[in-house]
Amino acid sequence: MERADENLLPSVYKEVSEAFNAGPSDLGYLTFIRNFVQGLSSPLAGILVLNHDRPAILAMGTFCWALSTAAVGASHGFLQVAFWRAVNGFGLAIVIPALQSFIADSYSDGSRGAGFGLLSLIGNIGGIGGGVLATIMAGQQFWGIEGWRCAFILMATLSALIGFLVLLFVVDPRKIIITARDVSESSDRDELMDKSNASAASIWMDSWTAMKAVMKVKTFQIIVLQGIIGSLPWTAMVFFTMWFELIGFDHNSTATLLSLFAIGCAMGSFIGGLIADKLSQIYPHSGRVMCAQFSAFMGIPFSWFLLKVIPQSVSSYTTYSGTLFIMGLCISWNATAANGPMFAEVVPVKHRTMIYAFDRAFEGSFSSVAAPLVGILSEKLFGYDSKSVDFAKGSAPEALALSRGLLSMMALPFGLCCLCYTPLYYIFKRDRESAKILSAVKEAEMI
Protein backbone atom coordinates (compact mmCIF):
# COMPACT_ATOMS: atom_id res chain seq x y z
CA MET A 1 0.00 0.00 0.00
CA GLU A 2 2.89 2.37 0.70
CA ARG A 3 4.33 1.93 -2.78
CA ALA A 4 0.86 2.12 -4.35
CA ASP A 5 0.33 5.44 -2.57
CA GLU A 6 3.71 6.75 -3.79
CA ASN A 7 2.78 6.01 -7.41
CA LEU A 8 -0.59 7.74 -7.36
CA LEU A 9 0.39 11.33 -8.10
CA PRO A 10 3.01 10.63 -10.80
CA SER A 11 0.46 8.43 -12.56
CA VAL A 12 -2.00 11.35 -12.85
CA TYR A 13 0.46 14.19 -13.51
CA LYS A 14 -1.35 14.99 -16.76
CA GLU A 15 -4.74 15.36 -15.06
CA VAL A 16 -3.29 17.35 -12.16
CA SER A 17 -1.50 19.58 -14.68
CA GLU A 18 -4.82 20.29 -16.40
CA ALA A 19 -6.82 20.69 -13.17
CA PHE A 20 -4.44 23.20 -11.58
CA ASN A 21 -2.76 24.67 -14.70
CA ALA A 22 0.63 23.37 -13.53
CA GLY A 23 3.75 22.80 -15.64
CA PRO A 24 6.49 20.17 -15.16
CA SER A 25 8.42 22.31 -12.67
CA ASP A 26 5.27 22.80 -10.56
CA LEU A 27 4.60 19.06 -10.59
CA GLY A 28 8.23 18.45 -9.70
CA TYR A 29 7.84 20.71 -6.67
CA LEU A 30 5.00 18.48 -5.41
CA THR A 31 7.34 15.48 -5.42
CA PHE A 32 10.10 17.64 -3.92
CA ILE A 33 7.88 18.76 -1.03
CA ARG A 34 6.83 15.24 -0.12
CA ASN A 35 10.35 13.79 -0.38
CA PHE A 36 11.95 16.71 1.46
CA VAL A 37 9.53 16.51 4.40
CA GLN A 38 9.92 12.73 4.40
CA GLY A 39 13.69 13.09 4.59
CA LEU A 40 13.66 15.66 7.38
CA SER A 41 11.13 13.66 9.42
CA SER A 42 12.73 10.22 9.07
CA PRO A 43 14.92 10.48 12.23
CA LEU A 44 11.69 10.72 14.20
CA ALA A 45 11.06 7.06 13.37
CA GLY A 46 14.39 6.13 14.97
CA ILE A 47 13.49 8.01 18.14
CA LEU A 48 9.99 6.52 18.33
CA VAL A 49 11.18 2.95 17.81
CA LEU A 50 13.65 3.24 20.69
CA ASN A 51 10.70 3.71 23.02
CA HIS A 52 7.61 2.14 21.41
CA ASP A 53 6.53 -1.03 19.62
CA ARG A 54 7.04 -0.88 15.87
CA PRO A 55 3.54 -2.14 14.89
CA ALA A 56 1.97 0.87 16.64
CA ILE A 57 4.38 3.22 14.83
CA LEU A 58 3.70 1.53 11.47
CA ALA A 59 -0.05 1.90 12.01
CA MET A 60 0.29 5.55 13.03
CA GLY A 61 2.29 6.38 9.91
CA THR A 62 -0.17 4.49 7.71
CA PHE A 63 -3.14 6.43 9.11
CA CYS A 64 -1.23 9.68 8.52
CA TRP A 65 -0.55 8.98 4.85
CA ALA A 66 -4.11 7.66 4.34
CA LEU A 67 -5.56 10.94 5.62
CA SER A 68 -3.27 13.04 3.42
CA THR A 69 -3.98 10.92 0.33
CA ALA A 70 -7.72 11.39 0.74
CA ALA A 71 -7.18 15.14 1.26
CA VAL A 72 -5.19 15.43 -1.98
CA GLY A 73 -8.11 13.86 -3.81
CA ALA A 74 -10.47 16.44 -2.30
CA SER A 75 -8.20 19.47 -2.87
CA HIS A 76 -9.32 22.34 -5.11
CA GLY A 77 -6.12 24.39 -5.20
CA PHE A 78 -2.48 23.74 -5.98
CA LEU A 79 -1.32 24.99 -2.56
CA GLN A 80 -3.73 22.59 -0.84
CA VAL A 81 -2.24 19.70 -2.79
CA ALA A 82 1.27 20.83 -1.83
CA PHE A 83 0.36 20.98 1.88
CA TRP A 84 -1.16 17.51 1.95
CA ARG A 85 1.77 16.07 0.00
CA ALA A 86 3.99 17.36 2.81
CA VAL A 87 1.79 15.55 5.36
CA ASN A 88 2.02 12.44 3.18
CA GLY A 89 5.81 12.63 3.38
CA PHE A 90 5.61 12.80 7.17
CA GLY A 91 3.56 9.59 7.31
CA LEU A 92 5.97 7.76 5.00
CA ALA A 93 8.91 9.01 7.07
CA ILE A 94 7.58 7.20 10.12
CA VAL A 95 6.75 3.96 8.31
CA ILE A 96 9.72 3.19 6.06
CA PRO A 97 12.67 3.08 8.54
CA ALA A 98 10.59 1.16 11.10
CA LEU A 99 9.62 -1.35 8.43
CA GLN A 100 13.23 -1.78 7.25
CA SER A 101 14.50 -2.48 10.77
CA PHE A 102 11.54 -4.85 11.24
CA ILE A 103 12.75 -6.86 8.22
CA ALA A 104 16.40 -6.71 9.36
CA ASP A 105 15.45 -8.18 12.77
CA SER A 106 13.36 -10.92 11.14
CA TYR A 107 16.17 -12.40 8.99
CA SER A 108 19.72 -13.64 9.66
CA ASP A 109 22.81 -12.14 7.99
CA GLY A 110 22.97 -14.81 5.29
CA SER A 111 19.35 -14.41 4.15
CA ARG A 112 18.72 -10.72 4.73
CA GLY A 113 19.03 -9.90 1.02
CA ALA A 114 16.14 -12.26 0.32
CA GLY A 115 14.11 -10.58 3.09
CA PHE A 116 14.63 -7.11 1.69
CA GLY A 117 14.10 -8.48 -1.81
CA LEU A 118 10.76 -9.98 -0.83
CA LEU A 119 9.71 -6.68 0.76
CA SER A 120 10.69 -4.84 -2.42
CA LEU A 121 8.96 -7.40 -4.64
CA ILE A 122 5.66 -7.04 -2.79
CA GLY A 123 6.11 -3.26 -2.68
CA ASN A 124 6.62 -3.10 -6.43
CA ILE A 125 3.51 -5.20 -7.00
CA GLY A 126 1.63 -2.65 -4.91
CA GLY A 127 3.23 0.15 -6.92
CA ILE A 128 2.04 -1.49 -10.14
CA GLY A 129 -1.48 -1.74 -8.76
CA GLY A 130 -1.53 1.86 -7.61
CA GLY A 131 -0.06 3.19 -10.85
CA VAL A 132 -2.32 1.14 -13.12
CA LEU A 133 -5.43 1.92 -11.06
CA ALA A 134 -4.76 5.67 -11.07
CA THR A 135 -3.81 5.80 -14.76
CA ILE A 136 -6.91 3.90 -15.88
CA MET A 137 -9.32 5.73 -13.56
CA ALA A 138 -7.81 9.12 -14.45
CA GLY A 139 -9.50 9.36 -17.85
CA GLN A 140 -13.01 8.68 -16.51
CA GLN A 141 -15.63 10.13 -14.16
CA PHE A 142 -17.45 8.39 -11.31
CA TRP A 143 -20.67 9.87 -9.93
CA GLY A 144 -19.69 13.20 -11.47
CA ILE A 145 -16.27 13.17 -9.75
CA GLU A 146 -13.01 13.16 -11.71
CA GLY A 147 -11.47 9.68 -11.85
CA TRP A 148 -8.08 10.70 -10.46
CA ARG A 149 -9.75 12.08 -7.33
CA CYS A 150 -11.69 8.82 -6.85
CA ALA A 151 -8.42 6.87 -7.15
CA PHE A 152 -6.88 8.89 -4.31
CA ILE A 153 -9.90 8.41 -2.03
CA LEU A 154 -10.06 4.67 -2.77
CA MET A 155 -6.36 4.23 -2.03
CA ALA A 156 -6.71 6.19 1.22
CA THR A 157 -9.53 3.90 2.35
CA LEU A 158 -7.50 0.76 1.64
CA SER A 159 -4.45 2.25 3.41
CA ALA A 160 -6.48 2.98 6.54
CA LEU A 161 -7.75 -0.63 6.50
CA ILE A 162 -4.16 -1.93 6.30
CA GLY A 163 -3.25 0.33 9.22
CA PHE A 164 -5.94 -1.28 11.39
CA LEU A 165 -4.77 -4.78 10.41
CA VAL A 166 -1.17 -3.91 11.36
CA LEU A 167 -2.29 -2.54 14.70
CA LEU A 168 -4.38 -5.63 15.48
CA PHE A 169 -2.23 -8.51 14.22
CA VAL A 170 1.46 -7.61 13.75
CA VAL A 171 3.93 -8.67 16.47
CA ASP A 172 7.28 -6.93 16.88
CA PRO A 173 10.20 -9.40 16.39
CA ARG A 174 11.84 -7.92 19.49
CA LYS A 175 9.03 -9.36 21.64
CA ILE A 176 9.59 -12.80 20.19
CA ILE A 177 13.37 -12.61 20.69
CA ILE A 178 13.06 -11.31 24.23
CA THR A 179 10.45 -13.90 25.22
CA ALA A 180 12.80 -16.66 24.03
CA ARG A 181 15.75 -15.45 26.13
CA ASP A 182 16.77 -16.55 29.60
CA VAL A 183 15.60 -14.61 32.62
CA SER A 184 19.24 -13.55 33.10
CA GLU A 185 18.72 -11.10 30.25
CA SER A 186 15.71 -9.45 31.86
CA SER A 187 17.51 -6.09 31.80
CA ASP A 188 17.28 -6.10 28.00
CA ARG A 189 13.60 -6.95 28.30
CA ASP A 190 13.06 -3.99 30.56
CA GLU A 191 15.00 -1.75 28.21
CA LEU A 192 12.92 -2.67 25.19
CA MET A 193 9.49 -3.37 26.62
CA ASP A 194 9.00 -1.03 29.56
CA LYS A 195 9.65 2.48 28.38
CA SER A 196 6.55 3.93 29.98
CA ASN A 197 8.43 5.13 33.08
CA ALA A 198 11.35 6.63 31.19
CA SER A 199 11.76 10.37 31.54
CA ALA A 200 11.79 12.65 28.52
CA ALA A 201 15.42 13.53 29.28
CA SER A 202 16.52 9.89 29.25
CA ILE A 203 14.61 9.22 26.03
CA TRP A 204 16.33 12.09 24.27
CA MET A 205 19.69 11.04 25.72
CA ASP A 206 19.25 7.51 24.36
CA SER A 207 18.23 8.94 21.00
CA TRP A 208 21.22 11.29 20.90
CA THR A 209 23.59 8.44 21.77
CA ALA A 210 22.12 6.28 18.99
CA MET A 211 22.38 9.15 16.48
CA LYS A 212 26.06 9.76 17.26
CA ALA A 213 26.86 6.04 17.07
CA VAL A 214 25.20 5.72 13.66
CA MET A 215 26.72 8.86 12.17
CA LYS A 216 30.27 7.71 12.99
CA VAL A 217 30.01 4.48 10.97
CA LYS A 218 32.03 4.91 7.75
CA THR A 219 29.96 2.35 5.85
CA PHE A 220 26.85 4.39 6.66
CA GLN A 221 28.50 7.59 5.43
CA ILE A 222 29.52 6.05 2.10
CA ILE A 223 26.18 4.34 1.43
CA VAL A 224 24.35 7.58 2.23
CA LEU A 225 26.61 9.49 -0.19
CA GLN A 226 25.92 7.04 -3.01
CA GLY A 227 22.25 7.02 -2.04
CA ILE A 228 21.96 10.79 -2.35
CA ILE A 229 23.36 10.57 -5.88
CA GLY A 230 21.76 7.24 -6.78
CA SER A 231 18.28 8.37 -5.73
CA LEU A 232 18.29 11.24 -8.25
CA PRO A 233 17.42 9.05 -11.29
CA TRP A 234 14.64 7.25 -9.41
CA THR A 235 13.12 10.53 -8.27
CA ALA A 236 13.32 11.85 -11.83
CA MET A 237 11.44 8.78 -13.14
CA VAL A 238 8.17 10.16 -11.75
CA PHE A 239 7.94 11.96 -15.12
CA PHE A 240 7.83 8.71 -17.13
CA THR A 241 4.00 8.68 -17.20
CA MET A 242 3.81 12.25 -18.47
CA TRP A 243 6.60 11.60 -21.01
CA PHE A 244 4.86 8.59 -22.57
CA GLU A 245 1.57 10.46 -22.78
CA LEU A 246 3.33 13.39 -24.49
CA ILE A 247 4.74 10.92 -27.02
CA GLY A 248 1.13 9.98 -27.80
CA PHE A 249 0.41 6.80 -25.83
CA ASP A 250 -3.06 6.56 -24.33
CA HIS A 251 -3.76 5.83 -20.64
CA ASN A 252 -3.89 2.05 -21.03
CA SER A 253 -0.69 1.83 -23.10
CA THR A 254 1.16 4.08 -20.66
CA ALA A 255 -0.07 2.01 -17.72
CA THR A 256 1.12 -1.18 -19.44
CA LEU A 257 4.58 0.24 -20.16
CA LEU A 258 5.08 1.43 -16.61
CA SER A 259 3.74 -1.88 -15.28
CA LEU A 260 6.36 -3.76 -17.29
CA PHE A 261 9.06 -1.54 -15.83
CA ALA A 262 7.69 -2.04 -12.32
CA ILE A 263 7.47 -5.83 -12.83
CA GLY A 264 11.09 -5.81 -13.97
CA CYS A 265 12.09 -3.80 -10.88
CA ALA A 266 10.10 -6.12 -8.60
CA MET A 267 11.73 -9.25 -10.01
CA GLY A 268 15.14 -7.59 -10.21
CA SER A 269 15.14 -6.43 -6.59
CA PHE A 270 14.25 -9.93 -5.36
CA ILE A 271 16.70 -11.70 -7.70
CA GLY A 272 19.42 -9.18 -6.81
CA GLY A 273 18.90 -9.87 -3.11
CA LEU A 274 19.19 -13.62 -3.67
CA ILE A 275 22.31 -13.28 -5.84
CA ALA A 276 23.93 -11.02 -3.24
CA ASP A 277 23.14 -13.53 -0.46
CA LYS A 278 24.89 -16.29 -2.42
CA LEU A 279 27.81 -14.10 -3.44
CA SER A 280 28.28 -12.83 0.13
CA GLN A 281 28.83 -16.42 1.28
CA ILE A 282 31.77 -16.67 -1.15
CA TYR A 283 33.01 -13.09 -0.71
CA PRO A 284 31.62 -12.02 2.69
CA HIS A 285 33.09 -8.51 2.62
CA SER A 286 32.79 -7.61 -1.05
CA GLY A 287 30.04 -9.72 -2.66
CA ARG A 288 27.24 -7.25 -1.91
CA VAL A 289 29.31 -4.30 -3.11
CA MET A 290 29.98 -6.00 -6.46
CA CYS A 291 26.25 -6.58 -6.98
CA ALA A 292 25.46 -2.95 -6.18
CA GLN A 293 28.08 -1.60 -8.59
CA PHE A 294 26.85 -3.82 -11.40
CA SER A 295 23.28 -2.63 -10.92
CA ALA A 296 24.21 1.07 -10.72
CA PHE A 297 26.42 0.85 -13.82
CA MET A 298 23.66 -0.76 -15.90
CA GLY A 299 21.57 2.38 -15.42
CA ILE A 300 23.88 4.31 -17.78
CA PRO A 301 23.40 2.36 -21.06
CA PHE A 302 19.72 1.71 -20.38
CA SER A 303 18.95 5.40 -19.71
CA TRP A 304 20.77 6.41 -22.88
CA PHE A 305 19.03 3.78 -25.01
CA LEU A 306 15.54 4.47 -23.59
CA LEU A 307 15.65 8.26 -23.78
CA LYS A 308 17.99 8.90 -26.69
CA VAL A 309 18.10 5.98 -29.12
CA ILE A 310 14.54 4.65 -29.34
CA PRO A 311 12.42 6.78 -31.74
CA GLN A 312 9.88 8.74 -29.67
CA SER A 313 6.78 7.45 -31.43
CA VAL A 314 3.83 5.23 -30.58
CA SER A 315 5.20 2.79 -33.19
CA SER A 316 8.10 2.06 -30.79
CA TYR A 317 5.76 0.46 -28.25
CA THR A 318 7.34 -3.02 -28.45
CA THR A 319 10.88 -1.64 -28.14
CA TYR A 320 9.88 0.47 -25.16
CA SER A 321 8.22 -2.56 -23.53
CA GLY A 322 11.28 -4.82 -23.79
CA THR A 323 13.72 -2.09 -22.79
CA LEU A 324 11.75 -1.05 -19.71
CA PHE A 325 11.35 -4.62 -18.48
CA ILE A 326 15.05 -5.55 -18.86
CA MET A 327 16.09 -2.18 -17.46
CA GLY A 328 13.97 -2.81 -14.37
CA LEU A 329 15.55 -6.25 -13.95
CA CYS A 330 19.08 -4.84 -13.96
CA ILE A 331 18.99 -1.48 -12.16
CA SER A 332 16.96 -2.35 -9.06
CA TRP A 333 19.43 -4.36 -6.96
CA ASN A 334 21.12 -1.76 -4.76
CA ALA A 335 18.73 -1.47 -1.83
CA THR A 336 18.04 -5.19 -1.44
CA ALA A 337 21.45 -6.60 -2.42
CA ALA A 338 23.64 -4.14 -0.54
CA ASN A 339 22.28 -1.14 1.35
CA GLY A 340 19.64 -2.75 3.56
CA PRO A 341 21.59 -5.90 4.53
CA MET A 342 24.88 -4.03 5.04
CA PHE A 343 23.31 -1.46 7.36
CA ALA A 344 22.03 -4.28 9.58
CA GLU A 345 25.56 -5.68 9.98
CA VAL A 346 27.46 -2.52 10.98
CA VAL A 347 25.42 -1.31 13.99
CA PRO A 348 23.99 -2.95 17.15
CA VAL A 349 20.45 -4.35 16.88
CA LYS A 350 18.90 -1.51 18.92
CA HIS A 351 20.30 1.08 16.48
CA ARG A 352 18.98 -0.48 13.29
CA THR A 353 15.90 1.69 12.95
CA MET A 354 18.04 4.77 13.57
CA ILE A 355 20.48 3.90 10.77
CA TYR A 356 17.63 3.29 8.30
CA ALA A 357 15.96 6.51 9.45
CA PHE A 358 19.05 8.65 8.89
CA ASP A 359 19.66 6.98 5.53
CA ARG A 360 16.15 8.03 4.46
CA ALA A 361 16.70 11.48 5.96
CA PHE A 362 19.80 12.24 3.91
CA GLU A 363 18.75 10.47 0.71
CA GLY A 364 15.19 11.80 0.75
CA SER A 365 16.16 15.39 1.49
CA PHE A 366 18.85 15.72 -1.16
CA SER A 367 17.37 13.52 -3.90
CA SER A 368 14.07 15.42 -3.69
CA VAL A 369 15.60 18.16 -5.86
CA ALA A 370 15.67 15.80 -8.88
CA ALA A 371 11.98 16.13 -9.79
CA PRO A 372 11.88 19.94 -9.92
CA LEU A 373 15.29 19.95 -11.67
CA VAL A 374 13.89 17.76 -14.45
CA GLY A 375 11.03 20.23 -14.89
CA ILE A 376 13.32 23.28 -14.78
CA LEU A 377 15.82 21.77 -17.24
CA SER A 378 13.00 20.73 -19.58
CA GLU A 379 11.40 24.18 -19.54
CA LYS A 380 14.40 26.55 -19.32
CA LEU A 381 17.13 24.62 -21.16
CA PHE A 382 15.41 22.26 -23.59
CA GLY A 383 12.39 24.35 -24.63
CA TYR A 384 9.40 22.65 -22.96
CA ASP A 385 6.31 24.89 -23.37
CA SER A 386 3.36 23.84 -21.22
CA LYS A 387 1.02 26.23 -23.11
CA SER A 388 1.50 24.44 -26.41
CA VAL A 389 0.92 20.92 -25.04
CA ASP A 390 -1.95 18.92 -26.51
CA PHE A 391 -2.31 15.90 -24.24
CA ALA A 392 -5.08 14.40 -26.36
CA LYS A 393 -2.84 14.01 -29.42
CA GLY A 394 0.59 14.10 -27.83
CA SER A 395 3.28 16.71 -28.32
CA ALA A 396 6.55 15.57 -29.91
CA PRO A 397 8.64 18.72 -29.17
CA GLU A 398 7.63 18.71 -25.50
CA ALA A 399 8.25 14.95 -25.23
CA LEU A 400 11.74 15.45 -26.65
CA ALA A 401 12.47 18.31 -24.24
CA LEU A 402 11.27 16.27 -21.27
CA SER A 403 13.35 13.24 -22.33
CA ARG A 404 16.49 15.41 -22.45
CA GLY A 405 15.75 16.70 -18.95
CA LEU A 406 15.27 13.12 -17.75
CA LEU A 407 18.51 11.91 -19.36
CA SER A 408 20.44 14.72 -17.64
CA MET A 409 19.21 13.53 -14.23
CA MET A 410 19.71 9.79 -14.87
CA ALA A 411 22.85 8.78 -16.78
CA LEU A 412 25.46 10.82 -14.89
CA PRO A 413 24.05 10.11 -11.37
CA PHE A 414 24.01 6.37 -12.13
CA GLY A 415 27.72 6.51 -13.04
CA LEU A 416 28.68 8.52 -9.94
CA CYS A 417 26.64 6.14 -7.76
CA CYS A 418 28.63 3.19 -9.12
CA LEU A 419 31.94 4.88 -8.26
CA CYS A 420 30.80 5.83 -4.74
CA TYR A 421 30.53 2.16 -3.72
CA THR A 422 34.27 1.52 -4.33
CA PRO A 423 35.60 2.47 -0.82
CA LEU A 424 33.30 -0.15 0.73
CA TYR A 425 35.64 -2.91 -0.48
CA TYR A 426 37.98 -1.77 2.30
CA ILE A 427 35.71 -0.14 4.89
CA PHE A 428 32.76 -2.57 5.19
CA LYS A 429 34.94 -5.39 6.54
CA ARG A 430 36.32 -3.17 9.31
CA ASP A 431 32.91 -1.81 10.35
CA ARG A 432 31.32 -5.25 10.27
CA GLU A 433 33.99 -6.71 12.53
CA SER A 434 33.75 -3.72 14.91
CA ALA A 435 30.00 -4.26 15.26
CA LYS A 436 30.54 -7.94 16.06
CA ILE A 437 33.13 -7.09 18.72
CA LEU A 438 30.75 -4.56 20.34
CA SER A 439 27.96 -7.14 20.42
CA ALA A 440 30.29 -9.76 21.94
CA VAL A 441 31.45 -7.31 24.62
CA LYS A 442 27.87 -6.45 25.54
CA GLU A 443 26.91 -10.13 25.81
CA ALA A 444 29.93 -10.81 28.04
CA GLU A 445 29.00 -7.89 30.31
CA MET A 446 25.44 -9.20 30.67
CA ILE A 447 26.67 -12.70 31.59
UniProtKB/TrEMBL annotation:
Recorded GO CC terms: membrane
Phosphoprotein is among the record's keywords: no
Keywords: Membrane, Transmembrane, Transmembrane helix, Transport
UniProt key word Amino-acid biosynthesis: no
Gene3D superfamilies: MFS general substrate transporter like domains
Matching SUPFAM superfamilies: MFS general substrate transporter
Membrane topology listed for this record: Multi-pass membrane protein
Stretches assigned to the Major facilitator superfamily (MFS) profile domain: 1-447
Any Pfam family the entry gives: MFS_1
Subcellular locations according to the entry: Membrane
TM region(s), chain numbering: 27-50, 57-76, 82-104, 116-139, 151-171, 222-244, 256-276, 288-307, 319-340, 361-378, 406-428
Record GO terms (molecular function): transmembrane transporter activity
PANTHER family per record: MAJOR FACILITATOR SUPERFAMILY PROTEIN (PTHR23505:SF78), SPINSTER (PTHR23505)
Family: Belongs to the major facilitator superfamily. Spinster (TC 2.A.1.49) family.
Protein name: MFS transporter
Source organism of this protein record: Senna tora
